[in-house]
Amino acid sequence: MRQKRRWNILVAVLLLAGCTPSVDHKGKTPLVEVAGNFLYKEDLQAVMPIGLSQKDSTAFADEYIRNWAEDELLYQKAEGNIPDNVKIDERVAAFRKALVMHMYEEELVNQELGNTVSDEEVEAYYRQNSGMFRAGQPYIQGLFMKVPLTASQLSKVRGWYKRNTQDAIDNLSKYGIGNAVSYEYFYDRWIPLSDIAVKLPLKALDTDRDYLNRNRNVEVRDTAFCYFLHVENFLPEGEQLPLEYARSEIKEILINLKRVDFINRMKQDLYKEASEDNDIVYYK
């Protein structure tokens, strides 16, 4: 408690110091000053999480102000005890140079290339590098339905969910509207086994990843619901990932390849132009 009081007194002193009229704060409201450096109200507001209660906001502000003041005090102490500031200046200059080049390169890349990659490019890369994209878990196609045990016509559902026919699917869709807690149709897309495993109270899926390859029709129940799962197609772990799951990764790869190629060509062009204009001087 005494430490907290001392901290409150310190904040009060710093707040008073921050009100020095001779300093141009450029329209900002000073909160704390340490050795001529200011933390402003606007800076604190910019990092304040949204939706906090008044109590939590006050606690966050107190902690942030304290950390800021401690960092400033440590910086002042460190700066006065580092004998060779030249090395620091050199490192800062090198970092600034790298940062400026990076930002310039990114701006040029965005202007020239953007983030567009055609479907044809993605599919070609997928075919040529199929070994890169392997499933880390099984994937399935089919349908899933969760129905209360008290629902009517469960015997009909047992017949419908096993058949991949238009009539059966239409019947399930209509039935699901008024009776199902959850109904998912994914004959037309692959989904990871884990997406279904968390919805199905079947412990076998935790230890046997090939279970649904051997059991394409699964019906289980708990104290309140009946779960139906039909697996039309099964992709084992280690097989080539479906294109729909590799697409985003391939796009990122292709964009990065284009960026590297563009930047390399830009550097070569700059070097060639400078050489022709004798802007590069070599000393022997």
Automatic annotation (TrEMBL):
GO MF terms held by the record: isomerase activity
PROSITE patterns per UniProt: PROKAR_LIPOPROTEIN (PS51257)
Top-level taxon of origin: Bacteria
Keywords, alphabetical: Isomerase
Name of the protein this chain belongs to: Peptidyl-prolyl cis-trans isomerase
Organism of provenance: Phocaeicola faecium
